[in-house]
# Entry
Amino acid sequence: MKKITTSLITILLLVYAHAQQQPARLIVRGDDMGYAHSGNEALIKCYTQGIEKSIEVIVPSPWFPEAVKMLADNPAVDVGIHLALTSEWDNVKWRPLTDCASLKDKDGYFYPMVFPNKNYPQQSIREQNWKIADVEKEFRAQIELALKKIPRISHISAHMGCTDISKEVSELTVKLAKEYSININLGDYNVEYIGFDGPHTTAAEKIDSFIKMLDKMKPGNTYLFVEHPGADNEELRAIHHIGYEHVAADRQGVTDLFTSEKVIAALKAKNIVLISYKDLLQQ
# Structure
């Protein structure tokens, strides 16, 4: 027994030592492609000129057709379906792809919020009498249109956490991901979510807090960082909702972060490898 125990400890130490020799890996994900023309341009820029490796596209969004064309022009970028049940901006809206009455507000749009929000009383999908059959019908329509237009889709994600409105919806999402063979479940690959380490209002703060975050990453582990690129221009200054009025400046800061030479140098110096969702399939 003592010999077996000693051998087990030796194996565990070897495994640990091997892990320590492996670089940390990081998926940098850009969300919300399709919400605006400027957002689409920024997302592609962050891929072609920066550190972003995966892009999430909102299928029922107004600029989805342009997103399809841009992604076709960049065939190597990893793409996920950003399943949506909400349309949060005050000045631009999108509707369900299906005729699912329980998912629509009085004007036929998605509700603005997923979870109850004091700024939008009784305007969250969670507070409505939504039907699971309608959610499934809508999710299937979004998935099938995405796969039709962007066949290389590799995974599913959730806009504003919409797949967590109930256990039933979470389970449905897993089922659909498996059925359509786009089921890269981050939990299966021990991917950890990681975020800014420090204030991150301005672009400079975002860059500094992101670099500080890198110091928390452990060799051999895999992490996911999620943000929303954009541009500080007239279009995005017209896109906002109560509680998030500085969208243009905030998302320009993300674009500056994702394309920062300082950040690129820090990743190299710290031996952190950038990967995409689909790269997880190769491990």
Q: What stands out?
A: The chain has nine helices and seven strands. The radius of gyration is 20 Å.
